[in-house]
Amino acid sequence: MLSRLRLVGIDDGFFPPEYKELKLKTVLVGTLYRGRRPVDVKLRTVTVDGTDGTKKAIEILESLGESDAVFLDGVTVAGFNVVDPEVLLSLSKSVVVIYKFEPNIERIERALKLRFSDWRFRYDIILKAYSRSSFVRTKWKTMRIAVFGDSSVEAERLISYTQLVSSIPEPLRASDIIASAISRNPALLSKISSEQPTSSQP
């Protein structure tokens, strides 16, 4: 059964610190796997510290087709842009948020309050995911995750199945590699960031 599942990993690329003030863009990548086999990849641009994260993730999922599970590396992309896992459930049976590192929620809240007039919108999504999270034991290590949507396939089993060469599920690891390779190429990143910022309201 696991070998037939359509699994998507979504992750963002690198950006220089000055991109935050200038509201420039980096890349957001979605990689589709059928079980453990890569099938397709889609790219979008996303505004650093913008509010178009969920919209861009939805565009990626729409272009890839409905999925059984989506893996996210936390719920923030491109700085403090956010992706709402619950909104993604319109195109995926479940969303699994992977926490590579333990987040400091109090510190995140303070940083958001200092920098954003819409800090509550961003913080609520971050807190929603974190509040739902728990630790699960996988074949590589114990990890903090949050699961949204259908839990017919146990998250522990699904994550362990997709851990091929590291603790990170392979669809998510592939998206990270692709996004990093593109965004760390100065010419490509310059072309990406030269696009006009997308207006998106929470």
**Could you report the average pLDDT, rounded to the nearest whole number?**
90
Low-pLDDT runs: 197-202
Radius of gyration: 16 Å
How many extended strands? 9
Structural class: alpha+beta
CATH fold naming: archaeoglobus fulgidus dsm 4304 fold
CATH architecture: 2-Layer Sandwich
CATH class: Alpha Beta
The major β-sheet equals: 7 strands, mixed
Molecular shape = globular
Number of domains: 1
Q: Number of helical runs?
A: 8
Which percent range describes the beta-strand content? 25-35%
Instruction: Please state how the strands of the largest beta sheet are arranged side by side.
Output: 3-2-1-4-7-9-8
Q: Quaternary state, please?
A: single chain
| Residues in helix, % | 25-40%
What is the topological layout?
Blueprint: E1 6-12, H1 19-22, E2 25-34, E3 37-47, H2 53-64, E4 69-73, E5 76-77, E6 81-82, H3 85-88, E7 94-99, H4 105-115, H5 119-132, E8 134-137, E9 142-149, H6 155-162, H7 170-183, H8 186-193
Parallel strand pairs: 1-4, 4-7
Antiparallel strand pairs: 1-2, 2-3, 5-6, 7-9, 8-9
Helix pairs in contact: 4-5
Key terms:
202 residues; alpha+beta; archaeoglobus fulgidus dsm 4304 fold; 7-stranded mixed sheet; two-stranded antiparallel ribbon; 8 helices; 27% strand; globular; disordered C terminus
